[in-house]
Amino acid sequence: MNHEIQTMKLAVTLLSCSVVLAKVPHKVDDLEEMDEDERKQFDDDIFTFNEDGEEWDAWEELSEDQMKNRLTKIFDRIDSNKDGNLDRDEVVDHTYKALFNMDEQEAEAEFVEADVDANYQVTWSEFVEEFYGLSPDDEANILAMDTDTGVEFNHMYSRDQARFQAADNDRDGKLTLVEYKRFKNPLQSKDLLDLAIEWALRSADKNKDKKISFEEYMSDFREDPGSNLEHYGEEFTDQEEQRFQEDLDLDGDGFIAGDELKYWLGPDNIAIAIEESDHIFDSVDSDEDNLITIHEMLEGFQTFIDSDVTEFGGQLRHIKDEL
Fold it and tell me: Looking at the keywords, is Repeat present (predicted)?
């Protein structure tokens, strides 16, 4: 295989996303030769250009007045019915979209990191090495790695692989950027979610009743660890039983079934958006009328800056100050 890598200039203008990489290495050696500070700067710079190729302002360096000025414009965007107030539904809706935007940005950054041969595709092995830090040899001998990383991969394997297979639209065993974003965010599409659940159930649902008992949940490993390995002991079982009961089996019937299966595959952004909205209202709705005015937003501007609602201030980069 020829290891001279083509230029990794990745202009991401696909579907709903339009981002230009600020600085990209031209071959794998460029990445390997970066020192820690240079690599961190590369990671930080990935999303610092807008769709016109113009560098966004570093919002962290804005004055308080500039932040408030830009938040005023974000207020107008959130206020979809234009009544001059933000209700809970408007904040939830805006936060839900912001969460998916952050998920997409994270997926794009991961894609660049994982695509080490710069062929614009990510294989399953590349994903495992990037996300779990496991080489193909480690993946093939997972029980020899009696470590937290090995245990996590062993127990997440079928769910991760199910999402990977569902997102691989052309079934070539490799994900393009569009497919990779679908893989990391299967809950965005009901069709993709249903397919990912179908793939995952093939591995875990031993009796084919389309639901997961705790016994099935605990036996869903890439390789059955048995009972003689340290990291699969009583503490591991107790932690997983608590997760099963508190985070997955929401109705307490002893099974992960129906809508609960999506939590098994990944977090539900709607639930996160509602929780974040509740936090915002608890913090800044000073008159407790379940509406946020522009005055209340600006009084509690730091709460908005530090929240998912504004992508932790990232949305301020998109807004220009009026002269």
Answer: yes
Token couple for 320: 């220009």
To the nearest 10°, the Cα dihedral for 191, 193, 198, 201? Answer: -170
Which residue has 């993946």 as its token pair? 139
What is the rounded distance in angstroms from the CA atom of residue 139 to the CA atom of residue 323? Answer: 56
The pLDDT tens digits of the residues spanning 28-65 come to: 344 455 566 654 444 444 333 444 444 444 566 788 99
Which segments of the chain does DSSP mark as H helices, in order? 28-33, 36-45, 64-78, 88-114, 124-132, 136-140, 148-167, 177-184, 190-204, 214-218, 234-243, 260-265, 269-284, 294-299, 301-305
Beta strand 174-175 with 19-20: parallel, antiparallel or unpaired? unpaired
Sequence-ordered list of residues with C-beta below 8 angstroms from that of 54, at least 6 positions apart, any chain? none
Angle at the Cα of 145 from the Cα atoms of 139 and 151, rounded to 5 degrees? 80
Over the stretch 87-144, which tens digit does the pLDDT of each residue have?
A: 999 999 899 888 888 888 888 999 999 998 889 999 999 999 988 999 989 988 999 8
- Residue 41's φ and ψ, nearest 5 degrees, are -65, -40
- CA 150/CA 152 separation, integer angstroms: 5
Taking the model in full, what pTM does it have? 0.67
Tell me what the pLDDT averaged over the chain comes to.
81
User: How far apart are the two ends of the chain, measured CA to CA in Å?
Assistant: 55
